[in-house]
Write a structure and sequence with these properties.
This protein has 139 residues and is mostly helical. It has 4 helices and 2 strands; from the N terminus they run H-E-E-H-H-H.
């Protein structure tokens, strides 16, 4: 079956049948109706294919919208993580600025670092920022 219509609306409108003794020649009418049937069958098939393609595109569009939404959420989460990592990095940099490359950690130093860390954790749990407290004493 060819994918194009064999008749146009104008051809159907202009079609004239020759008269026989009791009406039109049945063979001409049947042949013409066969062409019309083929055209309508082709249109129905094309319509079904178009509807199927449209449904497929809608489904794919919905999938892409969901994927895009998920990627947006993941991107926002990654940006928040990046921001927190930058804050943590800056905090660690401030804490480690006094350490020199030649410094060797000793057991006593490790003990002091652990005590300072415990005190900082305590201050954070009470709502104080140890860095702000230190800056008050520097003035």
């Amino acid at each position: 079956m060819d994918n194009r219509n064999t008749l146009t609306p104008e051809e159907i409108l202009k079609k004239r049948f020759t008269c026989a003794e009791v009406g039109y020649k049945p063979s001409e009418v049947d042949a013409f109706l066969d062409l019309i049937i083929q055209d309508y069958q082709m249109m129905v098939l094309k319509d079904k294919q178009s509807v199927q393609k449209l449904d497929d595109f809608k489904r794919k569009t919905d999938e892409m919208a969901t994927l895009l939404d998920d990627l947006g959420k993941e991107n926002r989460s990654l940006l928040a993580s990046k921001k927190q990592l930058e804050i943590d990095r800056a905090s660690l940099k401030n804490r480690l600025d006094g350490i020199k490359p030649g410094d060797v950690p000793t057991a006593e130093n490790m003990h002091l670092i652990q005590r300072v860390r415990a005190l900082e954790d305590f201050l954070y749990s009470k709502g104080y920022n140890p860095n702000e407290i230190v800056s008050l004493f520097k003035k």
